[in-house]
What does this fold into?
Amino acid sequence: MPEEDIVVVRDLEKRYGQVTAVKKISFTVRRGEIFAIAGPNGAGKTTTLEMLETLRPIDGGSASIAGIDVAEHPREIRRIIGVQLQSSAFQDKVTLAESLRMFASFYGRSVDVAQLLADVDLAEKAKSYPEQLSGGQRQRFSIAVALVNEPQVLFLDEVTTGLDPQARLNMWEHIKNIRDKGITVVLTSHYMEEVEELADRLAILDEGEIIALDSPKNLIQKLIDSGFRREAQVLPANLEDVYIDLTGKELRDA
It folds into this structure.
């Protein structure tokens, strides 16, 4: 039986005056996979996500999530997706536990706050305020907030930007755990090692167009088959491996 497509994008387009930021792109995301969108700054990655998240109007083409048309039924879409933004603002004098209950109330839900926080390694921070969190903790809390409505699809936009190596590795594990719970993940990233580690499939955007779409493994193999060879010898370790080996893999939130 073919895998079910939970996100279907057909000829999606976004225009800003005379500039077309997203140029009739088409792709599908399979239920339960991690799908990555990568590309240079200004390639249209965030704009694409924002249209799927109903944060920007669609100027052409169509998109659906779980069979629901994004443009025609934005309210229904918001009930079945979770969104972690590049920059998330929270009430500074509202504790993490209170914030989660507040966000859950927007969906008419009650949530197991302790479990949600434990799932993102913040169990001991329930009574803390957002202003007391480190950058990595804030990123993980923003994911907890995005999960309060038990979404079918979770959107992550540059979720590891600014994190140290330990926090980045920790975030990768959280993303895999979310996928393992049956939630489809769509993410953007500038880090190719991150995409290679996490993504089942990858769309590469450039100047608003998809220029490649396949699994990371297949894309690498196609390049090798074309005759590409690195000029420099590739060592079996890099500087980040040295850093992690010397300082340890454990997460440091202090």
Q: What stands out?
A: The beta strands are 5-16, 19-30, 34-38, 60-65, 68-69, 81-84, 153-157, 184-189, 201-206, 209-214. The longest strand covers residues 5-16.
